[in-house]
Amino acid sequence: MNPNVMHLHLENGDLAADVCPVAGGSLGRFEARGQAMLRRAPDLGATDPLEMACYPLIPFSSRVAHARFRFEGRDVTLPPDALSAPHALHGIGWRRAWDVIEEADTQAEIGFTHQPPAHGEKGWPWAFEARQTFALDGTALTIAISIANKAETAMPAGLGLHPFFEGRTTAKLTGDLPRIWEADADCLPTHLAEVTAVRKFARGRRIAPLTLDNCFAGGADPLDIEWEDRPLGLRMTRSDTSHTVIYTPQAHDFFCVEPVTHMPNALNRPEPAEVTGLRVLAPGETMRLECRFEVRGL
């Protein structure tokens, strides 16, 4: 492995991307014919994943309430994240530098290995191995993320990607997102509900008037994003379509449509796995999420 690489440049025809391993295994840029398909990082040498185009969510996505949970008789305490204190947020991967495993003109693979903290310290108590691959073909960027349980006992696990899209004020999202986890002031889910007419995306809905930080459950691909003032659009398809987090902050000109394998705070929810989406990996078992960002209009 090659550590401390700031960014890797990929190109294929009209498409270009930059991967930033040190910045939490993030994607710094994805463009088609010069149009930003995801938000551009202002500095590809930066190390803050919050400035990037997309960062990984591993071994869980979103919040874990009060940074603690109980699994198979074991009490686990995590360090709270400064963005969501007193809750944990988005796992470990986005706060770690990743190593370069493989690099080519049109694709790259990065990864890291997590070792549990010393006994009595806060942290994820299972060893795991993380991998991400980025690949450009003629019309799309495909990102795949995987986690392998390297512990001697079963491990709960989830995956996700956190892409940022520019142009909230002119964007429209179209997709099948039938149910929503309503949430409290801490963005922790309270109950599952059918999506009301004002928040339905099936026939397309402008992002600008929406104020969302919610997880949607169910539905099917694709998810289409178009901009009124830009020639190219995006079509997202995922290998796991059970959950999607949509974040539309009114104070910023970006929005997020996040493919995730489970709902927020799944580690503490009483619902069964077929509802929460949380996986349990046996020792040596691997799970994987793949998302294809296809450029439309080339």
Describe the protein:
The strands form six sheets. A nine-stranded antiparallel β-sheet has the order 10-11-12-13-26-22-21-16-19, with no helix packed on it. It is mostly beta strands and 298 residues long. It starts with 7 loop residues before the first strand and ends with a strand. It contains one helix and 26 strands.
Largest sheet: 9 strands, antiparallel
The percentage helix is under 10%
Q: What structural class results from the helix and strand content? A: mainly beta
Determine the oligomeric state from the structure.
Answer: single chain
Architecture (CATH level 2) name:
Distorted Sandwich
What low-confidence regions span 5 or more consecutive residues with pLDDT below 50? none
Task: Enumerate the strands of the largest sheet in spatial order, edge to edge or round the barrel.
Answer: 10-11-12-13-26-22-21-16-19
CATH class: Mainly Beta
N- to C-terminal distance: 36 Å
Q: Which percent band covers the strand fraction?
A: over 45%
Radius of gyration: 18 Å
